[in-house]
């Protein structure tokens, strides 16, 4: 099978989306599938069609139109059998339009909360957890100077989710996200696929000699939570510390 993976933003240095997608693509390639990508940065040993970088994009619909035309050309040229899109925010709606227009199945892979939060983190300004995207919640959470832009994003992403929900299959990064999106109507062929990581590589880390012994002594008989990822604002790690 010839698979086109669409990842508009693909940061080479860091980022869960890149490492997550790369692991999936390498696994598919190992099983004998032919992989082609459409991305700003290429993946190792995979043919890539590079998205253009625009200095300014006034409305999201223009980016969707660009992605639609670009992906449509690739599907026709490469004779793609399946489109795989783990980048809902930047390329999901456009990729779906292109696949639908050529009657090619599309699998949407939800990696984060952008489908149900216009900020992508499901957190109010006061750091309380938001139950999900609703106009009154989103506007109350927006800063006054960003009110028009946030209202516009809400309208676009709400409509986009209704279209993306019609994808041939949906993969979710967690059961929690799957439950939230099912409530929003994304319930067609849903499967949970957790983020892959190399346990030995993570545990090895950058600890110095003797640190492992001190760490084992410290965590002995304690309930331990392992967080794997970047310690950045929208991860919500501070919410765990409150417990």
What's the topology here?
Elements lengths: L1 E6 L8 H15 L3 E6 L7 E4 L9 H19 L3 E4 L2 H14 L4 E5 L24 H7 L5 H18 L4 E4 L2 H9 L6 E3 L6 H6 L6 H9 L17 H6 L1
Parallel strand pairs: 1-2, 1-4, 2-3, 4-5, 5-6, 6-7
Helix pairs in contact: 2-3, 3-5
Description:
A 7-stranded parallel β-sheet has the order 3-2-1-4-5-6-7, with helices on both faces. The protein is built from 9 helices and 7 strands, in the order E-H-E-E-H-E-H-E-H-H-E-H-E-H-H-H. The mean pLDDT is 83. It is an alpha/beta fold. Strand 4 (82-85), helix 3 and strand 5 (106-110) form a beta-alpha-beta unit. The protein has helices at 16-30, 60-78, 88-101, 135-141, 147-164, 175-183, 199-204, 211-219, 237-242; strands spanning 2-7, 34-39, 47-50, 82-85, 106-110, 169-172, 190-192.
Helix coverage percent of residues?
40-55%
Count, helices: 9
Quaternary arrangement of the chains shown? single chain
Mean of all residue-level pLDDT scores: 83
* Global geometry: globular
As residue ranges, the low-confidence spans are none
SS strand fraction: 5-15%
Distance between the termini: 47 Å
User: Compute the gyration radius: what is it?
Assistant: 20 Å
Q: Major sheet: size, sense and barrel closure?
A: 7 strands, parallel
Strand order of the largest sheet: 3-2-1-4-5-6-7
Helix-strand pattern = EHEEHEHEHHEHEHHH
Report the structural category.
alpha/beta
Number of strands: 7
